[in-house]
Amino acid sequence: MSNSRLSAPKYFHHVNNHSNVESHVLATLPATSRFQNGSSDANPVLSLMSLVSINVVPLLSQQVALRVAARQKPGMVRFHGYEGRLALMHRYSIHENHAATPLQRRMPVFNLYLFDLDGTLVDTRRDIAEAVNHVLQLHARPVADLATVISWVGDGLDDMMVRAFNTDEREFVGELVDEFRSYYKDHCTDFSSVYTGCSQTLTSLQERKAHLSVLTNKPQDLSLQILERLGILQFFDHVVGPNDADLRKPNPSNLLSLVRDVGTSNERTLMVGDSRNDILVARNAGVASCGCTFGYIGRDALLELDPTYLIETWPGLLLLADSTN
């Protein structure tokens, strides 16, 4: 990653004969930068252009690129020396002949980070699947594969059982949930693990005096148990699971309560998660969102949800915490 700050727009490149990419691409990158689609690597020149919106996509090697305007189908750009790729997204544009404001020149610094649990902090897939299949077998039903079980996850235990058993009989669903909980509480960390780089990143955010909390649709008692067993509970001021089905994400009520409890603002709050509900709850609350492509639904599904940021590894989150980036 370049050591140069995003303190002002510096370079722009012409992209010739590629109608899918805006003709002017602004980037604080070395003069040797080149586009993968074959355009010129002519020396960059100073530009008076300014970015209206700077959005980083931290990549596998924690490199930074800028989203730029695309006219038609989004293209892919590769910068030499920067191993990651950046999907060009059409909503972000570059405007000419306006001085860049401080907000345009630097990333916001967040002081409240809210994290989803499953698929964000911890890879819980196999333990969830084992518990669901245990319940299916209790009722002489065929077991489901991992991908199918994970497609049922995210909206609470009762909804997961509704999908697993294809039933809406509430009393029966309640019994299924009890059976799931009875097994899962003793096996919730048999195979689960904290994502690589998570603990180190949380430590760094704490050292920067950030407030960290968990906002999940998993029951609070199970969430606390998993976080404690895996050794990361101490990072969080609050672990919030829904007391009522109506308060589950994407309902923003619990998120906004956490913002008020910390005494911060929506502008300084970031919701980090891997699912549709995580991106939607952030939007409903009026806060920024960060999608985790290493989670359960993947990059393409996240991009369709239009998160404010995307990260492919946990340390990428630190790029959003540093005002000098």
Automatic annotation (TrEMBL):
Q: Which InterPro entries match?
A: HAD-like_hydrolase_sf (IPR050155), HAD-like_sf (IPR036412), HAD-SF_hydro_IA (IPR006439), HAD_2 (IPR041492), HAD_sf (IPR023214), PGP-like_dom2 (IPR023198)
Kindly indicate whether the keyword Hydrolase belongs to this entry. Answer: yes
Which Pfam family is one of this chain's hits?
A: HAD_2
Q: Which UniProt keywords apply?
A: Hydrolase
Catalysed reaction(s)?
2-phosphoglycolate + H2O = glycolate + phosphate
Its EC top class is hydrolase
Any one cellular-component term (Gene Ontology): cytosol
Q: Give the pathway.
A: Organic acid metabolism; glycolate biosynthesis; glycolate from 2-phosphoglycolate: step 1/1
Q: Name one GO molecular function term.
A: phosphoglycolate phosphatase activity
Q: Which domain of life is it from?
A: Bacteria
**GO terms for biological process?**
DNA repair
| Family assignment from sequence similarity | Belongs to the HAD-like hydrolase superfamily. CbbY/CbbZ/Gph/YieH family.
Q: What is this protein called?
A: phosphoglycolate phosphatase
The species is Candidatus Cryosericum odellii
